[in-house]
């Protein structure tokens, strides 16, 4: 009875509203206004103090000086005076996959993927370009995220990392990923410090050709300067790791700019290869400890494990490579090459969420200004992965952003003062 009465009342109200043209009140349902913060919008614009951000149905409706923005009638208003807003951070190279604890094959399940997307989100990483190892469940989550109800990080997928011992096998695998709906095609041209065989260049060329036939960009795992030049000449689309064997030279700088290709440093990927030879400083950082399982910390600090890493030739090789990578980020940033934040997190001991903050801090250590590093993690990253609906706080984009208590543009370490995270205007649980 009550239900019928409520329904009757509602339809009467709707009828009266439409008759009296009161519908604007209903149209403002789902609007939330954040008032008084300094807004870093992810574009080239300077941070805007005392600003207002209005989100309607999950997307940015208006952003501007508080004095210039009219808050729609009926909007929920949140006073965030004295705080800072920046767009959700985008990891242009991560992995959302099968890792559980320190087991890289713990389980590729929807539940495990959602756990990781929640973890990223609580750290303010609101989109992850998962570059390889993606299966049906990852594609399904990607397909399900274009909704104003979303409150976990967005995912984009590449499918399998393409391998094959013939041109036909390579083309078939590219087609299989494309048929599933991949956002990227991922390939490795690397020999893992001499330990494995590189993909032959004729097969690499076939891969790029087939990906482009399917209108998909190619993201390349590489290590060597020579391979980086080769992939640029082959018209591949995204450099997914730092050049780490040699300092980048003018020929490379000219080529990467001429081809308009983005560069993803993944500095923390290098860190993860050697840092557990001793107890890392971040093991005492509350911002790290708030999410890590104590059993993982314990396991990483077992003496056998630490001495094995200290004695590892590859660990020491990548430690040296990190110094080359850091210097290259500085040179490429000075040359105005588009640099996108990416970490290669997801595999064991590459901590999703926390490492993205470490990556941004290292990008500043490498020579970027805090605002450049934030741009590289927001607007530039979105451009680099071809996602036009995220990355900046401009009208029409998804309302993905973080609220901080201290200014990350003044000190990049303040990215760790994220107090709450919003995705499509919804507060991320536990953030
Ligand atoms: Zn990767």
Short overview:
The protein has 431 residues and is of the alpha/beta class. The chain has a single domain (90-392), classed as TIM Barrel.
Describe the fold and architecture.
- This protein has about 425 residues and is an alpha/beta fold.
- The chain has one domain (about 90-390): Alpha-Beta Barrel (TIM Barrel), CATH 3.20.20.140.
- Helices cover about 40% and strands about 15% of the residues.
- The chain is built from 16 helices and 15 strands.
- The protein has helices at about 1-20, 25, 110-120, 135-145, 165-180, 200-215, 225-235, 250-260, 265-275, 285-290, 295-300, 305-310, 315-335, 355-365, 370-375, 380-385, and strands spanning about 30-40, 50-55, 60-65, 75-80, 85, 90-95, 125-130, 155, 185-190, 220, 240, 260-265, 400-405, 420-425, 425.
- The chain is globular, with a radius of gyration of 23 Å.
- The model is unreliable at about 1-30 (pLDDT under 50).
- Zinc ion binds near residues 131 and 344.
């Amino acid at each position: 009875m009550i239900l019928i009465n409520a329904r009757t009342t509602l339809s009467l109200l709707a009828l009266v509203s439409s008759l009296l043209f009161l519908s604007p009140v209903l149209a403002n349902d789902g609007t939330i206004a954040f008032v008084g913060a300094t807004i870093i919008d992810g574009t080239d614009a300077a941070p805007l103090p005392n600003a207002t951000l209005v989100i309607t149905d999950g997307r940015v409706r208006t952003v501007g000086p508080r004095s210039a923005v009219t808050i729609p009638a009926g909007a929920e208003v949140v006073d965030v005076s004295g705080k800072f807003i920046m767009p959700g951070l985008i990891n242009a190279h991560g992995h959302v996959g099968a890792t559980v604890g320190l087991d890289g094959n713990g389980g590729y399940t929807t539940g495990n993927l959602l756990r990781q997307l929640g973890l990223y989100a609580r750290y303010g990483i609101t989109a992850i370009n998962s570059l390889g190892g993606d299966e049906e469940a990852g594609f399904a989550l990607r397909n399900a995220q274009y909704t104003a109800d979303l409150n976990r990080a967005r995912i984009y997928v590449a499918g399998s990392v393409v391998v094959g011992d013939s041109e036909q096998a390579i083309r078939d695998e590219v087609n299989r990923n494309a048929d599933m709906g991949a956002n990227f095609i991922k390939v490795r041209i690397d020999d893992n410090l001499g330990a494995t065989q590189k993909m032959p260049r004729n097969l690499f060329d076939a891969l790029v050709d087939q990906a482009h036939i399917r209108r998909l960009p190619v993201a390349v795992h590489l290590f060597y300067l020579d391979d980086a030049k080769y992939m640029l000449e082959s018209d591949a689309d995204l450099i997914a790791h730092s050049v780490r064997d040699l300092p980048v030279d003018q020929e490379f700088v000219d080529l990467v700019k001429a081809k308009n290709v983005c560069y993803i440093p993944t500095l923390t990927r290098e860190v993860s290869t050697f840092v557990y030879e001793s107890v890392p400083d971040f093991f005492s950082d509350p911002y790290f400890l708030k999410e890590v399982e104590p059993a993982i910390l314990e396991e990483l600090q077992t003496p056998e494990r630490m001495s094995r890493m200290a004695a590892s030739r590859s660990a020491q090789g990548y430690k040296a490579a990190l110094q080359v990578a850091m210097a290259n980020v500085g040179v490429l940033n000075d040359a105005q090459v588009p640099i996108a934040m990416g970490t290669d997190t997801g595999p064991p001991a590459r901590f999703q969420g926390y490492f993205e903050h470490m990556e941004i801090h290292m990008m500043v250590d490498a020579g970027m200004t805090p605002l450049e590093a934030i741009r590289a993690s927001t607007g530039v990253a979105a451009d680099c992965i071809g996602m036009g609906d995220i990355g900046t706080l401009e009208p029409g984009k998804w309302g993905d952003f973080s609220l901080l208590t201290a200014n990350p543009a003044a000190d990049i370490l303040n990215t760790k003062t994220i107090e709450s995270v919003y995705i499509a205007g919804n507060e991320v649980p536990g953030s």
